[in-house]
Specification:
The protein is mostly helical. The chain is built from 5 helices and no strands.
């Protein structure tokens, strides 16, 4: 039983170190097509989930907030992601941020 508890403690410590390592990772300085694909997939998924899980009195987050949250998750600079989105998909950019 002591061996089992020590393994759980070791796993917990490693998990915390792993989370700290990735939480402190610097933001990327450039954005690849793959990065934008991941951001847009997360944005689309979050948009659908908020519509499904939305509680009565709580307002839904804006598309802008969802897009910027996806950028933060993947450690991308929001301004650079906005610029890339504008260049690659102007209609989606205008849908999120307006003209």
């Amino acid at each position: 039983m002591k061996d089992f508890i020590s393994r759980i403690r070791l796993l917990a410590c490693l998990s915390v170190l792993f989370l700290i390592f990735f939480a402190c990772a610097p933001k990327k300085e450039s954005i690849s097509e793959y990065d934008m694909k991941r951001v847009l997939e997360r944005f689309a998924s979050a948009r659908i989930q908020t519509a499904i899980v939305l509680e009565g009195d709580k307002p839904a987050p804006s598309d802008q907030a969802l897009f910027e949250e996806a950028c933060e998750v993947y450690r991308l600079p929001v301004d650079l992601a906005k610029q890339t989105l504008r260049e690659k998909n102007l209609s989606l950019y205008e849908s999120i941020y307006g003209n």
